[in-house]
Amino acid sequence: MLNETTTTEETVTINPETEDSTEKVKENVTIEKPIESKPSTQIDYLDKSILEIKSVNFDEVDQYNEEDLDELPELYHESFKDINVNDVTTGTVVNITDREIFIDIGFKSEGIVPKSEFPELPAIGDEHRVFINTFEDHKGNCSLSKEKAVFLERWNELNESFEKEEIIKGTIIKRIKGGMVVDLIGVTAFLPGSQIDVRPITNFDDYIGEELEFKIVKVNETRKNIVISRKALLEVDLHEKRKEIIDQLETGMVLEGTVKNITDFGAFIDLGGIDGLLHITDITWGRINHPSEALEMEQTITVKVIDFDVEKVRVSLGMKQLEPEPWEEAEVKYPVDSHVKGKIVNMMNYGVFVELEKGIEGLIHVSEMSWTRHIKNPNELYKLGDEVEAKILSIDKEEKKISLGIKQLTENPWDEIEEKYPVGSITSGVVRNLTQFGAFVELEQGIDGLVHISDMSWTKNVRHPKDFLKKGDKIDVKILEASGENRRLSFGIKQTEDDPWGELKTIFNSGKLIEAKVLRVLDKGIIFTLEQELEGIVPLKRLSKQARADIKTKFKPEDLVEVIVQEIDQESKKVILMLNEPESQEDIAIKEEKETMKKLKKESTSDKLEVPQEIIDSLNKASKS
After folding, report:
1. Phi then psi for 250, rounded to 5 degrees?
2. CATH hierarchy code of domain 501-605
3. What is the CATH number of domain 413-496?
4. Element (H, E) at 173
5. DSSP string covering 384-428, please?
6. Rounded CA gap, 351 and 117, in Å?
7. Assign residue 209 a region: left if phi > 0, alpha if psi is -120 to 50, beta otherwise?
8. Pairing of strands 275-279, 314-318
9. Stronger pLDDT, 566 or 301, i.e. the higher one
10. Per residue in 395-453, pLDDT tens?
11. Which of 92, 228, 238, 549 could form a disulfide with 214 if both were Cys (CB 3.0 to 4.6 A apart)?
């Protein structure tokens, strides 16, 4: 576009010695030339050679007519190519220095390319594609780039391949986080680790340096990033191959395959173009915690086709199915009451599982481990891997369950417990445990019985067994109950002695004055300690609150007090006492109660109507007549 006009002058000097040399004066030839407005990427000055003042002969001036002069500006601009910054153009090498290559791109001055951008040194006259960085850098030079030109042209080619979904070639050059870097001949691309192959990769470095085919799956124009995949190409071929193979499969076929990958839930087996899943439960009839216990990578194995899905291209495989199921003859091999040996393969809170052979396990419940011990957890006796001997208690082929017992290998001591410890006999034992309601006494290993708190003393009111016994005490007990069927023994300590209450009634007869020590002062009464491990009580429940408060303040523990025996309460194991005090509060209360009763009786009597005897007699005669 022409947007401004400027004027340039050329001065022509006339030679006076020519044949036409007359008195001519110098003439100035003025040429008006339109100048295009320069884009921001072009230079801001004209070539000095255009502006030079040139001396010519007059006859030379005659060679140019007015039309030629008018065409000069147009010819000048046509000498430049229509190029802009960030364009890729072709140029010719015109000069080479130690650091730079000078290339003529048809601009008024040569462009400069760093020598380091040429893999091989070019020759003068060679043509190369270059990228225009700027027409004038900070040094006033036209800056070009060979590498950017190669990148952009290759980028455009790859973009076109992406749109057409074409296959491209590249060389894997290095490994980075998450994948590999691939050289696509001038442009690098990212190859995710998951897109290298259809099978999991164990060593990524094995692929470095390999030239392979890829498919472009993503292009980011802004960041100039490319993501490629090799797996996408392989899956297309593999899918067709899988279809072909799976069409030939039949349930029950026996095939050979290679262990391709091992996971927690099983292993993937390469069947020669198609993968099948061998689940952990189908590897062996026995118990394994992980497939790696039975399989190794790249191991060649024989498998059986259990099931397959043509549409989803899935194949289920089995190894154990190649062998007979062990439970088929389990009832014959392991009859009830037979003795077996096995290894503990699993432990639970409720028992242990014993492997009798691959695929057949039996359970020993904690209740079947000992006749006498109360086992809470099997780890009290066993650990994983222990070899044990047991007895077959029951077998269920349908449920695939076998119950085992260890205690059944020995005699049950409870079978003879009634004969060995008859009711009424006295024996000795050791206190093993104390509870709120009694104490457990062991007679022999694993054989113990309970002494209830009520059977510990005839006279002492035992509130907790620890007040009467402690662990480890060796004591005599009397057998109160023995049941082998219920595995229960009941003991008594007080029963080893005669009941003293008959004699105590004569010792603590009613009205007897005795000295007692205050044990506790309670709302219900004052508790005293007496002889023969007895306790006595002065009841206060009949008294008013004030009277009880007054008495409670008078007594404190350890005080010696004279009391009178009122009566003996054998059931509560206490002697009922009263205080030996004249006109005691208790006496006053009793007296008050008696006076109240008399008064009420008198009042009820005074309210009666007295009828004369004469009237009564006349009434009786009338009734007889």
Report:
1. -140, 145
2. 2.40.50.140
3. 2.40.50.140
4. strand 167-176
5. TT-EEEEEEEEEETTTTEEEEESGGGS--GGGGHHHHS-TT-EEE
6. 77
7. left
8. parallel
9. 301
10. 998 888 999 999 999 888 888 888 889 999 999 999 988 999 999 999 888 788 999 99
11. 228
Burial per residue of 81-93, b for 16 or more beta-carbon CB atoms within 10 angstroms, e otherwise: eebeeeebbebbb
Show Cβ contacts of residue 35 under 8 Å, excluding neighbours closer than 6 positions: 2, 4, 5, 6, 73
Q: Which CATH class is domain 326-409?
A: mainly beta
Cβ neighbours of residue 132 closer than 8 Å, sequence gap 6 or more: 83, 84, 85, 86, 87, 88, 89, 105, 111, 142, 143, 144
pLDDT tens profile 323-373: 888 888 888 999 999 999 999 999 999 999 999 988 899 999 999 998 888
What residues does each domain of the chain span? Answer: 2-78, 88-150, 165-234, 249-322, 326-409, 413-496, 501-605
* Mean pLDDT, rounded, for 46-74: 49
Dist. CA 117–CA 100, nearest whole Å:
9
Structure tokens, 297: 């990578």
pTM for this one?
0.44
DSSP annotation string for 507-525: HT-TT-EEEEEEEEE-SSE
| Dist. CA 579–CA 562, nearest whole Å | 7
The structure tokens listed for 292 are 């790696």
Domain 165-234 of CATH type 3.20.20.150:
no
Assigned CATH for 249-322:
2.40.50.140
